[in-house]
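Subject: Protein entry, chain in single-letter code together with its fold tokens

Area: Proteins and the way their chains fold up in space.

Attached in line: The record itself begins immediately under this heading.
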Amino acid sequence: MKLGLVKIALLCRRVTQSPSQLILEIFSQLTGLDKARAFRKTSLIEGYESSDLTAVVVSKTHNFIRDLAKEEPIILHSSQIKTFLGFVPLLGNKSLSVIDVGGGAGYHYFLLKFLLRNEIQLNWCIVETESMIKSAAGLEKDGLLFASNLEEAHSKLSNHCDLILLSSVLQYLPEPIKYLREMFMLNPPLIYISRTPFTEEKTFALMQESELGDNGPGPMPDGFRNSRIRYQAQILNRTFFEARVRESGFRIVARMAESDEVFSTTNSSIRTLGYIISRD
């Protein structure tokens, strides 16, 4: 639901913030939210169920669809294209069935549909909050569906799924490891995890704040006022995460360093990684 990667500008400088502030600032830059701060005393929107948040994301998606229809080249950042790296092994298929966890109002679907020029039939189900599902209901057509959980999404795709996509999502799930196990039970051929921070130390949680306008594709639409939104994030230990994948009978085909930089303190380190995971 959040786009863009920002290089870390805080490396190798003298630390003047408290550890919690510094960790959050680095984490926010790794995941593309350069304006996030911890525990700032201001009026906040709480969580992803916010009607303001869903309205902004849906409006941005409508604007993006409009831009795709223009008779001019669409401008894309490399970080937007790499979201589809996990689809490469499946591009020989005549159709693709995809579960897009936390996929907002369908940005990934509309972009891939545009890039493929409708040469592959996309059957795409987004797992989202009830608020997002309600706000994005008008976009549910031409192979795009919405569901509130994995089981419902799998059922809407006739119990067939070629790939499960999680782009900047795993860290925001309340119980990420439990959610992974539920995904593995669906036994998809491929799982693609992108734009996700991991640590080499013990898993830890933090409260993250960002600008409302940082959520969804593109700039803030007209008629909306920017504000701040807060949600919890969990930074998983990389080794623990990879062990859970392997013990579930899946294989890590590739681990991608999506940022070349690692931020380290005496207590923690954060690196943004992507994973292509296949069924053994």
In short: The helical segments are 19-30, 51-68, 78-81, 107-116, 130-135, 150-156, 176-185, 238-247. Residues 1-27, 29-42 have pLDDT under 50 and may be disordered. The chain has one domain: 19-279. Residues 36 and 112 are 29 Å apart (CA to CA).
